[in-house]
Amino acid sequence: MNELFQGAIKFYEEDYNNEKAFFKSLQENKPHTLFITCVDSRIDPNRLTHSKPGELYVVRNIGNLIPPFKDENDEMMEGYLATTSSIEYSICKLKVKNIIVCGHSNCGACAAVYNHDMLNEMPYVKKWLELLNPTIAKVETMRPESEHKRIWLTELQNIQQQLYNLLSYPFVEERFNRGELQIYGWYYNIMNGQILNYNLITREFKPIVRDNTH
Protein backbone atom coordinates (compact mmCIF):
# COMPACT_ATOMS: atom_id res chain seq x y z
CA MET A 1 0.00 0.00 0.00
CA ASN A 2 2.91 2.33 0.63
CA GLU A 3 3.68 2.26 -3.09
CA LEU A 4 0.22 3.67 -3.82
CA PHE A 5 0.66 6.46 -1.29
CA GLN A 6 4.02 7.31 -2.83
CA GLY A 7 2.40 7.25 -6.25
CA ALA A 8 -0.23 9.75 -5.09
CA ILE A 9 2.51 12.05 -3.82
CA LYS A 10 4.43 11.71 -7.07
CA PHE A 11 1.29 12.50 -9.07
CA TYR A 12 0.75 15.76 -7.21
CA GLU A 13 4.39 16.83 -7.12
CA GLU A 14 5.21 15.92 -10.73
CA ASP A 15 2.21 15.27 -12.98
CA TYR A 16 -0.20 17.83 -11.56
CA ASN A 17 2.31 20.59 -10.91
CA ASN A 18 3.86 20.13 -14.36
CA GLU A 19 0.47 20.30 -16.10
CA LYS A 20 -1.60 22.57 -13.88
CA ALA A 21 -3.33 24.29 -16.78
CA PHE A 22 -4.46 20.97 -18.22
CA PHE A 23 -5.79 19.61 -14.95
CA LYS A 24 -7.58 22.85 -14.18
CA SER A 25 -9.28 22.57 -17.58
CA LEU A 26 -10.96 19.40 -16.31
CA GLN A 27 -13.46 21.37 -14.23
CA GLU A 28 -16.12 20.26 -16.72
CA ASN A 29 -16.79 16.63 -17.51
CA LYS A 30 -16.83 16.43 -21.33
CA PRO A 31 -15.76 12.95 -22.45
CA HIS A 32 -16.12 12.05 -26.12
CA THR A 33 -16.25 8.28 -25.61
CA LEU A 34 -17.98 5.83 -23.31
CA PHE A 35 -15.53 2.97 -22.71
CA ILE A 36 -17.15 -0.17 -21.25
CA THR A 37 -14.68 -2.79 -20.15
CA CYS A 38 -13.83 -5.42 -17.56
CA VAL A 39 -12.63 -4.73 -14.02
CA ASP A 40 -9.58 -6.90 -14.77
CA SER A 41 -6.50 -5.17 -13.35
CA ARG A 42 -4.57 -5.75 -16.58
CA ILE A 43 -6.86 -3.46 -18.58
CA ASP A 44 -5.94 0.24 -18.65
CA PRO A 45 -8.40 2.11 -20.93
CA ASN A 46 -6.40 5.34 -21.09
CA ARG A 47 -3.18 3.51 -21.90
CA LEU A 48 -4.83 1.30 -24.52
CA THR A 49 -6.19 4.36 -26.31
CA HIS A 50 -3.39 6.83 -25.50
CA SER A 51 -6.07 9.18 -24.17
CA LYS A 52 -5.86 11.73 -21.40
CA PRO A 53 -8.04 12.28 -18.32
CA GLY A 54 -11.35 13.79 -19.38
CA GLU A 55 -11.60 11.97 -22.71
CA LEU A 56 -13.10 8.66 -21.61
CA TYR A 57 -16.16 7.98 -19.50
CA VAL A 58 -15.30 4.52 -18.19
CA VAL A 59 -17.74 1.87 -17.01
CA ARG A 60 -16.20 -1.29 -15.59
CA ASN A 61 -17.70 -4.52 -14.32
CA ILE A 62 -16.91 -8.22 -14.27
CA GLY A 63 -16.94 -9.43 -17.87
CA ASN A 64 -17.71 -6.04 -19.51
CA LEU A 65 -21.40 -6.95 -19.45
CA ILE A 66 -24.34 -4.78 -20.47
CA PRO A 67 -27.76 -5.86 -19.18
CA PRO A 68 -30.38 -5.83 -21.98
CA PHE A 69 -32.99 -3.09 -21.82
CA LYS A 70 -35.78 -5.63 -21.19
CA ASP A 71 -35.88 -9.20 -19.90
CA GLU A 72 -37.55 -12.22 -21.49
CA ASN A 73 -40.89 -11.06 -20.09
CA ASP A 74 -40.56 -7.70 -21.87
CA GLU A 75 -40.02 -5.95 -18.54
CA MET A 76 -37.34 -3.32 -17.98
CA MET A 77 -34.24 -4.72 -16.32
CA GLU A 78 -34.04 -2.92 -12.98
CA GLY A 79 -31.52 -4.97 -11.03
CA TYR A 80 -28.33 -3.69 -12.63
CA LEU A 81 -28.59 0.06 -12.15
CA ALA A 82 -24.90 0.75 -11.54
CA THR A 83 -24.11 -0.15 -15.15
CA THR A 84 -27.32 0.96 -16.89
CA SER A 85 -27.48 4.33 -15.15
CA SER A 86 -23.89 5.07 -16.14
CA ILE A 87 -24.66 4.26 -19.78
CA GLU A 88 -27.78 6.43 -19.70
CA TYR A 89 -25.98 9.36 -18.06
CA SER A 90 -23.05 9.30 -20.48
CA ILE A 91 -25.32 9.35 -23.52
CA CYS A 92 -28.28 11.46 -22.43
CA LYS A 93 -26.41 13.98 -20.26
CA LEU A 94 -22.79 13.99 -21.38
CA LYS A 95 -23.61 13.41 -25.07
CA VAL A 96 -20.71 11.08 -25.83
CA LYS A 97 -20.15 10.47 -29.53
CA ASN A 98 -18.64 6.99 -29.34
CA ILE A 99 -19.08 3.79 -27.36
CA ILE A 100 -16.42 1.10 -27.14
CA VAL A 101 -17.18 -2.26 -25.54
CA CYS A 102 -13.78 -3.79 -24.82
CA GLY A 103 -13.37 -7.44 -23.90
CA HIS A 104 -10.07 -9.23 -23.53
CA SER A 105 -8.20 -12.51 -23.61
CA ASN A 106 -7.79 -14.71 -20.52
CA CYS A 107 -11.07 -13.32 -19.19
CA GLY A 108 -11.85 -14.73 -15.75
CA ALA A 109 -15.58 -14.16 -16.18
CA CYS A 110 -15.73 -16.08 -19.46
CA ALA A 111 -13.89 -18.98 -17.82
CA ALA A 112 -15.83 -18.85 -14.56
CA VAL A 113 -19.20 -19.54 -16.20
CA TYR A 114 -17.98 -23.06 -16.91
CA ASN A 115 -16.74 -23.62 -13.35
CA HIS A 116 -19.95 -24.21 -11.44
CA ASP A 117 -18.27 -25.31 -8.22
CA MET A 118 -16.38 -22.02 -7.98
CA LEU A 119 -19.47 -19.92 -8.76
CA ASN A 120 -21.50 -21.70 -6.09
CA GLU A 121 -19.09 -20.19 -3.55
CA MET A 122 -19.68 -16.66 -4.91
CA PRO A 123 -23.45 -16.07 -5.16
CA TYR A 124 -23.20 -12.40 -6.21
CA VAL A 125 -20.77 -13.19 -9.01
CA LYS A 126 -22.93 -16.14 -10.04
CA LYS A 127 -26.00 -13.94 -10.27
CA TRP A 128 -24.18 -11.27 -12.29
CA LEU A 129 -22.75 -13.80 -14.72
CA GLU A 130 -26.24 -15.04 -15.57
CA LEU A 131 -26.08 -12.18 -18.08
CA LEU A 132 -23.65 -14.38 -20.02
CA ASN A 133 -26.27 -17.11 -20.59
CA PRO A 134 -27.18 -15.96 -24.14
CA THR A 135 -23.49 -15.95 -25.04
CA ILE A 136 -22.98 -19.44 -23.62
CA ALA A 137 -25.94 -20.72 -25.64
CA LYS A 138 -24.42 -19.37 -28.88
CA VAL A 139 -21.03 -20.88 -28.12
CA GLU A 140 -22.58 -24.29 -27.47
CA THR A 141 -24.03 -24.31 -31.00
CA MET A 142 -20.47 -23.98 -32.35
CA ARG A 143 -19.44 -27.23 -30.64
CA PRO A 144 -15.90 -26.16 -29.63
CA GLU A 145 -13.54 -29.13 -29.51
CA SER A 146 -11.50 -27.95 -26.52
CA GLU A 147 -11.95 -25.99 -23.32
CA HIS A 148 -9.44 -23.41 -24.52
CA LYS A 149 -11.42 -22.77 -27.70
CA ARG A 150 -14.69 -22.70 -25.74
CA ILE A 151 -13.42 -19.87 -23.54
CA TRP A 152 -11.91 -17.99 -26.51
CA LEU A 153 -15.19 -18.19 -28.42
CA THR A 154 -17.02 -17.05 -25.30
CA GLU A 155 -14.79 -13.99 -25.06
CA LEU A 156 -15.49 -13.03 -28.68
CA GLN A 157 -19.20 -13.85 -28.64
CA ASN A 158 -19.56 -11.94 -25.39
CA ILE A 159 -18.47 -8.71 -27.08
CA GLN A 160 -20.96 -9.23 -29.88
CA GLN A 161 -23.76 -9.98 -27.42
CA GLN A 162 -23.04 -6.84 -25.39
CA LEU A 163 -23.25 -4.72 -28.55
CA TYR A 164 -26.64 -6.31 -29.23
CA ASN A 165 -27.71 -5.58 -25.64
CA LEU A 166 -26.48 -2.01 -25.95
CA LEU A 167 -28.59 -1.40 -29.05
CA SER A 168 -31.67 -2.65 -27.21
CA TYR A 169 -31.79 0.68 -25.35
CA PRO A 170 -34.04 3.10 -27.27
CA PHE A 171 -31.88 6.15 -26.51
CA VAL A 172 -28.84 4.27 -27.88
CA GLU A 173 -30.55 2.86 -30.96
CA GLU A 174 -32.08 6.21 -31.92
CA ARG A 175 -28.77 8.08 -31.79
CA PHE A 176 -26.96 5.24 -33.55
CA ASN A 177 -29.50 5.17 -36.40
CA ARG A 178 -29.23 8.95 -36.81
CA GLY A 179 -25.45 8.71 -37.08
CA GLU A 180 -24.95 10.68 -33.88
CA LEU A 181 -23.35 7.76 -32.05
CA GLN A 182 -20.63 5.34 -33.19
CA ILE A 183 -20.41 1.91 -31.58
CA TYR A 184 -17.39 -0.40 -31.55
CA GLY A 185 -16.51 -3.78 -30.08
CA TRP A 186 -12.86 -4.36 -29.19
CA TYR A 187 -11.00 -7.51 -28.21
CA TYR A 188 -7.70 -6.87 -26.46
CA ASN A 189 -5.19 -9.72 -26.56
CA ILE A 190 -3.17 -9.32 -23.38
CA MET A 191 -0.40 -11.66 -24.53
CA ASN A 192 0.56 -9.85 -27.75
CA GLY A 193 -0.91 -6.37 -27.24
CA GLN A 194 -3.07 -6.54 -30.36
CA ILE A 195 -6.55 -5.05 -30.39
CA LEU A 196 -9.21 -6.43 -32.73
CA ASN A 197 -12.19 -4.33 -33.81
CA TYR A 198 -15.59 -5.89 -34.52
CA ASN A 199 -17.31 -4.72 -37.69
CA LEU A 200 -21.07 -4.54 -37.13
CA ILE A 201 -21.73 -4.85 -40.86
CA THR A 202 -19.44 -7.74 -41.81
CA ARG A 203 -19.70 -9.29 -38.33
CA GLU A 204 -16.02 -10.10 -38.10
CA PHE A 205 -13.07 -9.09 -35.95
CA LYS A 206 -10.06 -7.51 -37.62
CA PRO A 207 -6.84 -6.09 -36.14
CA ILE A 208 -6.76 -2.33 -35.69
CA VAL A 209 -3.99 -1.10 -37.98
CA ARG A 210 -3.13 2.30 -39.42
CA ASP A 211 -4.97 1.85 -42.70
CA ASN A 212 -8.34 0.87 -41.14
CA THR A 213 -8.64 3.48 -38.38
CA HIS A 214 -11.14 6.30 -38.65
From TrEMBL:
Extract one GO molecular function annotation from the record.
carbonate dehydratase activity
EC primary class: lyase
- Give the cofactors, semicolon-separated: Zn(2+)
Enzyme Commission designation: 4.2.1.1
Query: Does Lyase count among this protein's keywords?
Result: yes
How the cofactor is bound: the record states:
Binds 1 zinc ion per subunit.
Which reaction(s) does the protein catalyse, per the Swiss-Prot or TrEMBL entry? hydrogencarbonate + H(+) = CO2 + H2O
Provide the protein name: carbonic anhydrase
Species annotation? Helicobacter trogontum
Gene name?
cynT
